[in-house]
Amino acid sequence: MSRPDRRLAQRLIQLYAGLALYGASSALLVAAGLGLEPWNVLHQGLAELTGLSIGVVSIVVGAGVLLLWIPLRQRPGLGTVSNVFVVGLAMDGTLALLPDARSLAVRVPLLVAGIVLNGAATGLYIAARFGPGPRDGLMTGLHRRTGRSIRLMRTAVEVTVVVTGFVLGGTIGVGTVLYAVSIGPLAQLFLRMFAVPSAPSGSTVVAGAQPGRAILRR
Prior knowledge:
218 residues; 8 helices; 73% helix
């Protein structure tokens, strides 16, 4: 196997390992029951409303968000489309394997493990450079179309998502706050650990966005 092919294979492994681990980490946060990351508050609330599993709801919402890319003139990558399906399937699969956690002695370690694993998963799939997740692309698209800062767009969207999810029955708690303050530093740490060297000029490896410019949440 040539060097470009090995590099591409490494990036593909990172992409799908990262997305699967992201789904697994989200499942740990659900099992802990101490608060979810913003979008999963919405997913859980919609799951309570519809009776669907949280993973299926994640897939449906991700596909819906991806449709919003069309008027925003965003271009999805392999990682974007894969994100929609792999994360939700991995979340449901992990939840099916996890026992009920009732005591804080179990739930707190699940919460901490979920947040750390989420940071590692984020670093893995962003460093693979196959395109942002659908929700991150929504933020960048709104930024480009409105001229407002990415931080403002993210805050506005995620506050709306959290409030809507909470009203529908999603879980907000200490885990939501802990996730918000720790995921950026954790993702940045793991991005440096998992960074794949850029392909040399003229290589056939598919180019992607530089991980340092990525938004560090799904």
